[in-house]
Amino acid sequence: MPTPAPTGPLVTRDTLAKQLRLLGVKTGETLLAHTSLSSLGWVNGGAVAVAQSLLDALGPNGTLVVPTQTGDLSDPAVWRNPPVPQEWWETIRATMPSYDPRVTPARGVGVIPETVRTWPGALRSAHPQTSFAAIGPRAAEIVEGHATDCRLGERSPLGRLEKLDARVLMLGTGYATCTSFHLAEYRIPSPRVRVGRPAPGGGWEVVTEVSITSDRFDELGCDFERDRPVVVRGTVGAAEARLFPVREAVAYAERWLAVHRPREEEI
After folding, report:
1. Do the strands 30-35 and 167-171 form a parallel or antiparallel pair, or are they unpaired?
2. What are phi and psi of 157, to 5 degrees?
3. Phi and psi based region of residue 89 (left: phi greater than 0; alpha: psi -120 to 50; beta: remaining)
4. What residues in the chain have per-residue pLDDT under 70?
5. Per-residue pLDDT tens for 219-251?
């Protein structure tokens, strides 16, 4: 069968940068971007052009941050998509490569974060499963000190982003991808879970962590957008885009989750 013709609109680095500025992205700010390349239309230059447009809109004094998660560095016993035979588990645990921020690819967050991760001058945080990468003058301040027993809490880049009055850009993604909401889970009663992963020096380790889940985040985001006038909406390429402060999103999520999605705290 012949390859179908591409669907538009045709978008370029320059048009994306212009539309990001029209949305409200400010020169010099710190921006946490959640992105979907496929939502934008036909991008001339693909993920590289999108990364360039974000950096263009932020300017040399701005800092771009993206999630570069590596959920595959986890216990095979919890894998569901797809599962692996139980008789493989011990071998997988014994031989799984340790996390290396320089070479371990991001997984499940799209091609744009992986492009940013490998960008010249990009820095990446140390958590083996929920790292972030950053480019710009505040990159080191944001990614350093990501505690390996704090996936998305106070001692993660999310805590730094909140203190720096950063904003979230959701570019063609829904609120289910909003990592800022997870910071609220660390501030309300939440279950604890034991998390298995390859140890930094080789072998296997298990740590106790706050249980995190994006269950009902779409509903939470809808209510946040309805109740708080801080969410700016617009179109970038063919994608629906949203822009809002990390601080406002976390504060709203703390109250909302405690009421609408309470979870028993267990040790």
Report:
1. parallel
2. -55, -25
3. alpha
4. 1-5, 265-267
5. 999 999 999 999 999 999 999 999 999 999 999
